[in-house]
Design goal:
The chain has helices spanning 3-8, 25-36, 65-69, 73-89, 108-123, 136-142, 164-177, 227-234, 303-316, 372-387, 421-430, 446-455, 461-468, 471-474, 476-494, 498-512; strands at 15-21, 41-44, 60-61, 95-103, 132-135, 153-161, 181-183, 188-194, 197-204, 211-221, 242-253, 262-265, 274-279, 282-286, 290-291, 328-337, 353-356, 362-365. With 518 residues, the chain is α+β, with helices and mostly antiparallel strands. Strands 3, 4, 5, 6, 11, 12, 13, 14, 15 and 16 form a ten-stranded mixed sheet that branches. Strands 1, 2, 7, 8, 9, 10, 17 and 18 form an eight-stranded mixed sheet that branches. A hairpin with an 8-residue loop joins strand 12 (262-265) and strand 13 (274-279). The longest helix has 19 residues, at 476-494.
Length: 518
């Protein structure tokens, strides 16, 4: 997946069947679906792939325990089915994770135990493991650092975990293998109508500055939190679809929760479920749910959100984390579908909505990461009708995601690359120095930078440290220390100069400060 090659595929005389705006999970999912059906597909992303919400999730592929509490059985069923499909098609990135619900009141064991049995029943043959009520001793075996005072036991159940940004990159590569053309740092700046119908877009390559006018039979808006900004380009009078909500996570050292089990807290002060999850040898705590007035590409955690997470974490861990223990913090925007009757964002449904404007703009809004494939399928079915395309059946249920490998653990710290790990190892075989770690406290090696530039359309230091590896989210300060070496390797690979290198280091360091809790 090479950016120059992708740019070279653009010909302003070409009429695309499908033009997708947005390179998050849903956008790249639509690209795989459309291209695999045989439609000539172009995807344009204004920044980097998964730069927004799709890289800032709680890292769970799950049915949604909270939706079960709400009685939203249909959404849980759909998500559990999609969870199974994801594990089948991307086993190198999606795996089982045991979750413990610690019980401190007599009624919690039977209550949550029954709830999780229903969860198991709904999953059926797609289940990730059988839930059960466990003793205090078994609970401590799974989570030895849990608060022991008043602990009666627990309930164990199983869900899925993944690396969200890396999965987006792998889905994007799958799309290109199916013949889709996808380009990052190519914002759509204008929509052009012909006889009242949308047929063209103006897009600008941020790297070269060149502007393109591109024609498609149907345009799809898959921009997540920025859905309404694209809709406004189509119709300035349209009413907002999105009611944004901010979800914040903090990252702690593994010592706070050793072992391979997560903690699920089913009820917090604001009614949300929160998790403490082992991920890449760190612990992620999340998430909050705070209404937002304005959507930003780099949302910043608020002090009260951090306090909320630390307070609830302290209730369940023997060692209370403090602000000094936070290695990184990150915020993501949930693009919830607006419901004027809902009192708060925690009550707004995650179900997706496909809308078609008078001019033919197909918009996908809402939804959740786990159901990205179904969202893509539903969106494309509508787009086929709008574009007057010959209908062809969806194939994505059985398409393996790029990097597919059933036993990727054999690659050690390169596991998340799946079958691509051997290519990175080949880079090291040619120059053993490239096996050097970029930072003693992190796992990323120099060869990964070269691979990311050559094969994963990395344009800047942030792309690599935030999304191709997860260094920024795992340890923000360490990632700043990694930036000079990353910039030096990228400078050579991209043919840049020292001025570019200095600018990259400065801009990345400034960005990373937003992830450091002062």
């Amino acid at each position: 997946m090479n950016r120059s090659e992708m740019i070279g595929r653009i010909d302003e005389k070409t009429i695309w069947d499908i033009i997708i705006i947005g390179g998050g999970a849903t956008g790249v999912g639509i690209a795989v679906d459309a291209a695999s059906r045989g439609y000539k597909t172009l995807l344009l992303e204004k920044g980097d792939f998964a730069q927004g919400t799709s890289s800032r999730s709680t890292k769970l592929v799950h049915g949604g325990v909270r939706y079960l509490q709400q009685g939203n059985i249909s959404l849980v069923l759909e998500a559990l089915k999609e969870r199974g499909i994801l594990r089948k098609n991307a086993p190198h990135l999606v795996h089982n994770l045991p979750f413990i619900v610690p019980n401190y009141d007599w009624w919690e064991g039977p209550f949550y135990g029954i709830g999780m049995k229903i969860y198991d029943m709904l999953a059926g043959k797609e289940g990730f493991g059988k839930s059960e009520i466990i003793s205090k001793e078994e609970t401590l075996k799974h989570i030895p650092t849990v608060e022991q005072e008043g602990l009666n036991g627990g309930v164990i159940y199983y869900d899925g975990q993944f690396d969200d940004a890396r999965l987006v990159i792998n889905i994007a590569k799958t799309a290109t293998e199916q013949s889709a053309t996808i380009i990052n740092y190519m914002p759509v700046t204008k929509l052009i109508k012909k006889s009242g119908l949308l047929k063209r877009v103006i897009a600008s390559d941020l790297e070269s500055g060149k502007e393109y006018e591109l024609e498609g039979k149907v345009l799809i808006n898959a921009t997540g939190p920025f859905t309404d900004s694209v809709r406004n380009m189509d119709d300035e009078t349209c009413k907002p679809f999105i009611k944004p909500s901010q979800g914040v996570h903090i990252v702690l050292d593994k010592s706070f929760l050793p072992g391979d089990s997560a903690i699920m807290v089913p009820h917090t002060d604001d009614g949300r479920v929160i998790f403490a999850i082992p991920w890449h040898n760190k612990i992620i705590i999340g998430t909050t749910d705070t209404p937002m007035e304005k959507v930003e590409l780099e949302p910043k955690p608020m002090e009260e959100e951090i306090d909320f997470l630390l307070k609830h974490t302290a209730r369940y861990l023997a060692k209370d984390p403090t602000k000094k223990d936070v290695l990184s913090m990150f915020a993501g925007v949930r693009p919830l579908v607006n419901n004027p009757e809902a009192e708060n964002t925690a009550a707004i449904s995650r179900e997706h909505v496909v809308s078609i404007s008078k001019s033919g703009l197909v918009t996908i809004a809402g939804g959740k990461w786990t159901t990205y494939r179904k969202m893509a399928e539903d969106t494309l079915e509508q787009a086929i009708m709008v574009g007057g395309l010959e209908h062809k059946p969806c194939l994505t249920t059985n398409i393996q995601i790029h990097g597919f490998h059933k036993n990727a653990t054999i690659f050690g710290e390169l596991e998340s690359y799946g079958s691509d790990a051997t290519e990175i190892q080949n880079i090291v075989n040619k120059d053993s120095k490239l096996a050097n770690k970029l930072h003693p406290e992190m796992t990323a090696i120099e060869a990964e930078v070269i691979w990311a530039v050559r094969e994963e359309m990395v344009v800047n230091v942030e792309d690599f440290l935030s999304r191709r590896t997860r260094s920024l989210l795992l340890n923000a300060k360490a990632s700043i220390e990694m930036a000079p070496k990353v910039a030096e390797i990228m400078k050579y690979e991209l043919g840049k100069n020292n001025k570019w290198k200095r600018t990259q280091i400065e801009s990345y360091s400034k960005l990373a400060q937003n992830y450091i809790l002062s």
